[in-house]
Amino acid sequence: MTDWAAWKLGRGRVLAGVAVVTALLLSFHGAVPNGVGGLGSLLETFLPWLGVVVVVLLVLALVRRSALALLALLLPVAAWTHLFGGLLLPAPEPGPGDLVVVQHNVSDENTDPAGTARALARAEPDLVALEELVPPALEVYAKTLAPDYPYHAVRGTVGLWSKYPLTGSRPLDIKPQGIEEVWERGLRSVAHTPRGEVAVHVAHLPSVRVRASGLASSRRDESAGLLGDALAAEELRKVVLLGDLNGTVDDRALRPLTDALNVPERGLALSFPAGFPLARIDQVMARAGTVGVVRTLPATGSDHLPVVARVVWD
Questions:
Q1: How sure is the predictor about 10, in pLDDT bands with cuts at 50, 70 and 90?
Q2: pTM of the full predicted structure?
Q3: Three-state secondary structure along the chain?
Q4: Tens digits of per-residue pLDDT, 126-152?
């Protein structure tokens, strides 16, 4: 080996080190502790964005002409591809028996509820789940959606509109301790679809806050556990969960849900914030079915983007 080749290979040790650390974070994010500032959940919320770090490292490695850094980059590239590459593959062709659903936090500050409702209906879903429903906007949503969705159920600030009859609608008790005011943000109903009865759970988990001390998510985490208990007690085989869960499917705090339900197999569909989406916290999950593809719809008057998905039953 010539001195020139050795010099080339020896450059970029710092870049190579950062690449290895990035690969470790991707591969072993579950080992990052959550006890201090919720660091584990914070990392998992933005885990796909480590791909941007890989791209930056690639550019720097090329600028530095570092063979060592380029070789090290194979590790995070492989880890990111393993975790998220499948989401970027082409979606399967839709089938006639698929259940098309829309999930949208419409925002209690939305100044155009009628326009929002019309935009959601244009996607022609079978079910529409909405959160942050407040009067008088609630009446506008109900009136605008009624022609295409004659069946609906509302409990507190969450609601479900359906092309198919709904029965057994009732609130879900997912209220964490310490909240004294009226707080109804969970709903369970049964949709009588051509493929049989489907238990539809609609939920809006408490918000999280990113502070200097880390991620404040204790109420969200507690509410996720309560929702997981409700899903475990669900007697119907077919289940769909729609909601603003204020967490990504990679966040360990949602394991009571992701361990019991199937998450989308295709599509990143980052939904929040609408102006520059950083994470998909609006979720569609299913039991006894596959969420084949998830995608976002154009922005409405909300700070969230609507999410549309197809559920393929087993």
A1: low
A2: 0.93
A3: CCHHHHHHHHCCHHHHHHHHHHHHHHHCHHHCCCCCCCHHHHHHHCHHHHHHHHHHHHHHHHHHCCHHHHHHHHHHHHHHHHHHHHHHCCCCCCCCCCEEEEEEECCCCCCCHHHHHHHHHHCCCCEEEEECCCCCHHHHHHHHHCCCCCEEEEECCEEEEECCCEEEEEECCCCCCCCCCCCCCEEEEEEEECCEEEEEEEEECCCCEEECCEEECHHHHHHHHHHHHHHHCCCCCCEEEEEECCCCCCCHHHHHHHCCCECCCCCCCCCECCCCCCECCEEEEEECEEEEEEEECCCCCCCCCCEEEEEEEC
A4: 999 999 999 999 999 999 999 999 999
Reading the block at residue 87, the tokens are 């989401």
Per-residue model confidence as pLDDT tens digits over 44-53: 999 999 999 9
The region of weakest confidence among 44-48, 180-184, 192-196 is: 180-184
Sign of CA dihedral 244, 141, 298, 90: positive
